[in-house]
Design goal:
heterodimer; A: 170 residues; alpha+beta; Glutaredoxin; elongated; B: 151 residues; mainly alpha; 6 helices
């Protein structure tokens, strides 16, 4: 490795300017990622109702719950898919656990994706935690990913019940 | 009612520790970027990579950055409102180790130009962790799992 002991002053200055520009660009990228990530955290989106014939979700949630030693909640079930390496899974589990404990008919189940890798494929989930909100029939009504706040969890619950009372054609 | 299917967790750690440590690491990585493709950058990136090693092997509490947090920062803070599982931040340390090690190995092999690039990637990850608690490696964990052939 050849080291230039006396680089021309101009080159030195250009190099430093470039590196500062690179650092500013990195900060912009970091802020953009942080803002984008925050915006999607924990927000439940209602799951579009697909026709059962073309349904390839591949998971019977009542069966999955049975294998986890529980059953569907009478109002709603929060099925949380977690991983060991995920820290927001812990806070989400606390949030949903508290909601389920305080709300009759609401069940919270946490499943480790390393125990059930088939569910990762079946749900096409991309990050942990992914929370499926199941209606009393075991159909996926809404879904959220990332850390969930108590307010977001309550909103998700209301959305599921709202969708049911609005009536479904099927 | 909660059915917890995760395995029994090891003793919790203060969740602010890994974030403060990530902030310290991010500052060092920013300096590496500023040093550009130089020997000095390679030396500093090597220091950062070696600093990730105890974190990845023994856990995030084992790094000197975590020691700084315990000695300088934690005594000035209130007790944390909850403790955190040390396994996710330990995985983050492993991701940091891999990314910086790529730069170190390339640098010692003569490709000094790779050093600031590796530092740049690690900087974004560390800065996100420090600023908003986002663990980039943890978000990518599932993508890695999906790419693995079905077991």
């Amino acid at each position: 490795m050849q080291i230039d002991m006396f680089p021309p002053a101009d080159d030195e200055r250009t190099g430093m300017t470039m590196q500062w520009t690179a650092l500013v660009a990195l900060l912009v990228v970091t802020v953009a990622l942080a803002v984008g990530w925050r915006a999607t955290q924990g927000r439940a989106r209602t799951t579009p109702q697909v026709a059962d014939a073309g349904h390839d979700g591949g998971a019977d949630w009542a069966d999955v719950l049975a294998s986890a030693g529980t059953t569907l909640g009478e109002r709603a079930t929060f099925l949380q898919l977690s991983a060991e390496v995920c820290s927001s899974c812990r806070s989400t589990a606390r949030t949903l656990g508290d909601l389920a404990a305080a709300t009759p008919g609401v069940v919270h189940v946490e499943i480790d994706v390393d125990d059930r890798p088939d569910l990762v494929r079946a749900t096409r989930m991309l990050r942990t935690p992914t929370v499926l909100v199941l209606d009393p029939d075991g159909a996926e009504a809404a879904r959220a990913s990332g850390a969930m706040t108590p307010a977001q969890a309550r909103t998700a619950l209301t959305a599921v019940e709202g969708a049911r009372t609005a009536g479904r054609t099927s | 009612m909660t059915e917890n299917r995760t395995t029994t967790a090891p003793a919790g750690i203060d969740p602010r520790g890994p974030r403060v440590a990530a902030g310290v690491t991010a500052v060092l990585l920013a300096v590496v970027v500023l040093l550009g493709a130089s020997q000095a950058a390679l030396v500093l990136l090597t220091v950062v990579a070696v600093s990730f090693l105890p974190g990845a092997v023994r856990g995030p509490q084992a790094t000197w950055q975590a020691w700084l947090f315990r000695v300088l920062v934690r005594p000035r803070l209130d007790a944390p409102d909850h403790l955190e599982d040390p396994r996710p931040p330990r995985f983050a340390q492993l991701v940091g180790l891999v990314v910086t090690a790529v730069g170190v190995v390339a640098g010692f092999a003569g490709a000094l130009a790779v050093v600031p690039w590796a530092a740049a990637v690690a900087f974004v990850a560390a800065a996100l962790n420090a600023a908003v608690g986002l663990c980039l490696g943890c978000e990518l964990y599932l993508l890695g799992r999906r790419l693995r052939p079905s077991a």
